[in-house]
Structure to design on (194 residues):
């Protein structure tokens, strides 16, 4: 069981890794502060699983690797460690100090938006991801209704956005040259009841 985290305390990276190793919950680290990750709902987990399956199937014979929400990403510009819902890596993962649970080189990151994390995922977390040189595409998937947004990096400052909002449509992910059906991403989800 992890000790109670104090918002006033500044933790070292080593303390963060020690506390997380003892914790039953995922912990994120942001410039000395540690935050517990909120638990995800069934719908969130189902969509995240559907995304992983769709990406895994599309990329199975490629040089891309797909990983799930147990993979941390290190963001060195502000010494942060965060968990995405899914990540695609080109070629081979580069690891933070040989820790096989923490990568440095995400190409594409997927976040399934939850009411408690949507503002953070669309704002500060996206801003942090953009500081990573390998990061080229960000995909956010809503869980209350069919809506997927893909942000593709055109250059250092400019991003192109594509929004798709119908289960009969597809979304093209440019960084990996893959087209996904929204019906696959929302498989098993009753959006009419939401």
């Amino acid at each position: 069981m992890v000790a109670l985290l104090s918002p006033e305390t500044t933790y070292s990276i080593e303390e963060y890794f020690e506390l997380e190793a003892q914790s039953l919950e995922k912990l994120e680290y942001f410039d000395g502060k540690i935050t517990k990750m909120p638990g995800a709902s069934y719908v969130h987990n189902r969509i995240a699983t559907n995304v992983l399956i769709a990406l895994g199937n599309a990329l199975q014979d490629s040089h891309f690797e797909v990983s799930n929400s147990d993979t941390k990403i290190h963001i060195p510009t502000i010494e942060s460690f965060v968990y995405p819902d899914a990540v695609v890596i080109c070629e081979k993962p580069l690891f933070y100090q040989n820790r096989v649970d923490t990568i440095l080189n995400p190409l594409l990151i997927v976040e399934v938006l939850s009411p408690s994390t949507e503002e953070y995922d669309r704002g500060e977390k996206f801003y942090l991801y953009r500081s990573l040189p390998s990061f080229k595409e960000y995909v956010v998937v809503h869980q209350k209704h069919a809506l997927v947004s893909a942000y593709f990096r055109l250059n250092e400052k400019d991003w192109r956005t594509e929004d798709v909002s119908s289960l009969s449509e597809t979304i093209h992910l440019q960084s990996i040259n893959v087209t996904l059906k929204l019906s696959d991403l929302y498989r098993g989800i009753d959006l009419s009841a939401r």
Notes: The CA atoms of residues 167 and 182 lie 5 Å apart. The helical segments are 13-22, 42-59, 118-122, 124-129, 182-185. The chain has a mean pLDDT of 92. The first strand starts at residue 27 and ends at 30.
